[in-house]
Amino acid sequence: MIAEVRLYRDGLAQILAAHADIEVVGNLRHWKDAVPLLAVARPDIVLLEAAPAEKVAAVQQLTQGPGTVQVIALSIADHDDVVSWAEAGISGFVTRDDSLSDLFAIVRSVTRNEMPCSPRVASALLRRVGALATHRAGPDVRLTVRELEVLGLIERGLSNKEVGRALCIQLATVKNHVHNILEKLQVTRRADAVAVARGLTGPHPGLRPAPSAGSGLPERRSSPSLQ
């Protein structure tokens, strides 16, 4: 069990341990503290609550250790969040609206290599697969160096405001870059842009930096409605 708030993780761990078929072998504040303990505790499942910007690193580190560890993400906000966590490598998820009964059912489903999800989440996952399939064999996509930086921060789960702070640029400028990225990748949502970019930067890269400034290529203006 990994969660920042001690009262939350202690209470949840106590409730889980009350079930005869569940043994809680660890209760930690941060996922980095759990990595060196995996070889000793050898858990089957890790219940993980992590910051959006850390989810990819967290899931990769937890699942690449010794044994076969399956990660269940806690406190998922919406179906887009589920898709980005799924890309990170989770085996299951618990939303903010799920009950304790739902949690127990999800834990047991994951042990059977199943991931229950709503029709809406299933639809989002299928759209993501479709986006990857569409672009995997497509032509080269050229993004500017700044657009690649913005896309990398979006992949880490940062909002437009957080991207602006990280790169020391205005929010309107971030929205302009996001608009250009979505248009170039031929998608309509940030999450789909991340999925396409990951597919294009695989074994056969198709995502490349555009020619540097001075090439004479015009830059599009921002869309005021883009969030």
User: Rounded to an integer, what's the Rg over CA atoms?
Assistant: 20 Å
User: Total helix count?
Assistant: 11
Strand order of the largest sheet: 1-2-3
Helical percentage: 40-55%
Strand count, sense and closure of the main sheet?
A: 3 strands, parallel
Are there runs of 5+ residues with pLDDT below 50, and where?
201-205, 213-227
Let me know the average pLDDT.
80
Separation of termini? 34 Å
Silhouette: elongated
User: How much strand?
Assistant: 5-15%
The structure class reads mainly alpha
Task: Give the topology string: H per helix, E per strand.
Answer: HHHEHEHEHHEHHHHE
Write up this protein:
The protein is mainly alpha-helical and 227 residues long. Helix content is 50%, strand content 9%. The chain has 11 helices and 5 strands. The protein has helices at residues 6-17, 31-34, 38-41, 55-63, 79-88, 100-111, 119-136, 145-155, 160-167, 171-185, 190-200, and strands at 45-48, 70-76, 92-95, 141-143, 207-209. Helix 4 (55-63) links the parallel strand 1 (45-48) and strand 2 (70-76). The chain is elongated. The model is unreliable at 201-205 and 213-227 (pLDDT under 50).
